Design the sequence.
């Protein structure tokens, strides 16, 4: 199989992850049939975010363009998809707004 045949049989996707002060979007060319979780593992995010171990990325909730995936291990990607890796928020937004409102009153 020629190199052009191999690259032609791949689809372009992105994997995105962010910490409060740093974010990365990794562009990947993956084989058709690749799951969202597989793409995250191929993105090598632990090397970009050493404060997170591989186990975090193996279990983290995932989404596509803001829509949470119920079964990311089984969600087959389409060309152009952006897989988002979610993490728990450091502060609950509702509690933060409530504390601000109490401070004003």
Sequence:
């Amino acid at each position: 199989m020629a190199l052009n045949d191999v690259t032609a049989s791949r689809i372009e996707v992105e994997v995105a992850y962010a910490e409060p002060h740093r974010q990365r979007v990794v562009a990947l060319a993956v084989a058709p049939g690749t799951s969202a979780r597989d793409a995250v593992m191929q993105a090598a995010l632990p090397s970009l975010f050493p404060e997170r171990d591989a186990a975090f990325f193996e279990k983290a909730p995932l989404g596509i363009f803001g829509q949470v995936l119920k079964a990311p291990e089984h969600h087959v990607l389409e060309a152009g998809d952006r897989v988002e890796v979610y993490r728990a928020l450091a502060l609950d937004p509702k509690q933060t707004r409530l504390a601000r409102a109490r401070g004003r009153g």
Remarks:
- The first strand starts at residue 11 and ends at 19.
- DSSP finds five helices and five strands in the chain.
- Helices lie at 3-8, 36-42, 45-48, 54-59, 93-104.
- The CA atoms of residues 72 and 88 lie 17 Å apart.
